[in-house]
Amino acid sequence: RWHWLVALAMALPFLFVAALVSSRGRERPPSATSRTRSLTVVPFVNVGGDSAQAYLADGISDELATALGKFRGIRVVGRTAARQYQGHRDVDARAVGHAMGAEFVVQGSVRRATDRLRVSVQLARTESGEEVWANTYERPAGDAFAVQDEIVHTIADTIRSRFGGGNIGIRPSRVVRRIPDAGAYDLYLRGQYLLRRRGPGVRLAAERFDSAIARDSNFAPAYAGLSAALALFPYFTNTPPAAVYSRVAAAAQGALVRDSTLGEPHTALALDAMSVHAWARADSEHRKALAAEPTDPSAHHQYGRYLFYTGQLDSALAEFRRAESLDRYSALYSSWVGHMLFEQGKVREALEELGRALDIDSLNAVLLLHAAQVYASIGDTGAARAMIERLPNMPPWTASRAYLTARIGDRAAARSAATNRTD
Questions:
Q1: Which of 23, 62, 137, 182: disulfide with 142, CB 3.0–4.6 Å?
Q2: Where are the chain's structural domains?
Q3: Which residue from 270, 66, 93 is spatially nearest to 152, judged by alpha carbons?
Q4: Half-sphere exposure for 418 (CA within 13 Å, toward CB)
Q5: CATH T-level topology, domain 323-423
């Protein structure tokens, strides 16, 4: 018995170490408090239907999504796809949440009457469809930013306290939150509304951002919006890149001086650099944008475009897939995935991806362009023509229409398109 006790005593340290190594080697499932919570924000309803006020409902819901995405432990999904529910009241949270791949759904409505603002908002859980939290805010019309800020923090606090989001918190920032001038914030929302619609709205968006800055010279997002709008001028307004370079740089620096955590100004600087083929500078700015906003699908999409234009197809495909994973119902991101597959010679896979994207949005101009290129390359002139005819007849698409029309053999129509070019 004495020999047995000695052997056991000698073995205990080794048994302890073995158990410790084994326990460290086992994969531990994430605890409920450490999980990242996903949510989607449905565009708020513009109560009353006044089209002049559409920008306000659209802007508040979009800014909510942006602000919620800045919380560590919260992932905002389906930003593009959620727009299909625009104008729909009382959407089924379970259906929307499952479609978007989100645990929670935020929806609401906005009404502005003269000098009063009424914002109603609900947070629902996808699994059960239960309304987790709801509130209605009746405030002066100039309090839109303050209402939005209150909603964002209440939603984050509710998810944290009721569903174990223990790691939810604002990402570290050296910027002290400030409430912008009410008029400046209203102009900013108008600018973002126009910018999202691209086309002629890009120039109008820049004017709104300029006006917002004139009212509040310390409002960083207005500078960021201006840099983004100006960076798109060469694509949508027939403006030479050299004519806007200094303005893009000034607006972007104006934003970053006031808030160094913003990613949008870096993307604007990258796009501007790409337009003059300053590839090294573009790469640097894209990387800074991704470091600032790692879950922004648009930042991954724009970096993917840079990688494609510099011949890095595998890396480009990975970035487009990342953008697609963050907003899986975006026809734009899926179209670029399809285009990369086509560039790699995977025609069947490309057609499948483009077909799925067309089911999401059959009018997306980039998607129509990519689909037309694939169909033209495989000799399906009927399908290619159908895509070409749906392309917008405005910059920057008119040149592509003329080229693709000629490629499928319709030279008379191509000459007509080239003659009538406006870009």
A1: 182
A2: 37-167, 182-294, 323-423
A3: 66
A4: 11
A5: 1.25.40
DSSP bridge partners of 118:
111, 138
Shared fold status for 37-167 and 182-294: no
Tens-digit pLDDT profile for residues 186-196:
999 999 999 98
CA distance 421 to 423: 6
Cα four-point dihedral sign 373, 378, 381, 384: negative
> What does the pLDDT look like over 118-176, one tens digit per residue?
999 999 999 999 999 999 999 998 899 999 999 999 999 999 888 875 556 655 444 44
CA angle 376, 300, 274 (to 5 degrees): 70
User: Which superfamily does CATH assign the domain made up of 37-167 to?
Assistant: ABC-type transport auxiliary lipoprotein component (3.40.50.10610)
| Mean pLDDT rounded to a whole number for the chain | 85
Token pair of 111, please?
């009404």
With bands split at pLDDT 50, 70 and 90, how would you rate the model's confidence at 13? Answer: very low
Nearest to residue 165, comparing CAs of 320, 35, 344? 35
In 3D, which of 228, 227, 199, 225 has the Cα closest to residue 212?
A: 225
Residues pairing with 106 in the sheet = 41, 123
At 6, give phi and psi (nearest 5°): -65, -45
Q: What are phi and psi of 322, to 5 degrees?
A: -65, -45
Looking at residue 137, its amino acid is Y
Q: Indicate whether 315 pLDDT > 50.
A: yes
Secondary structure E strands in 114-265: 116-125, 131-140, 169-170
Q: What is the pLDDT of residue 418?
A: 53
The candidate with the shortest Cα–Cα distance to 282, out of 312, 258, 237, is 312
Mean pLDDT check: name the lowest of 8-17, 95-104, 114-123, 135-144. Answer: 8-17
Lowest mean pLDDT among 28-37, 270-279, 374-383: 28-37
Report the alpha-carbon distance of residue 290 to residue 198 in Å, rounded. Answer: 23
Bridge partners (DSSP) listed for residue 120? 109, 136
- pLDDT tier at 281, thresholds 50, 70, 90: very high
Task: Give the residue carrying structure tokens 């910059």.
Answer: 395
Name the CATH architecture for the domain at 182-294.
Alpha Horseshoe (1.25)
State yes or no: pLDDT of 285 exceeds 90.
yes
End-to-end Cα, the chain, rounded Å: 96
Quick check: 255 and 262 in contact, CB under 8 A?
A: yes
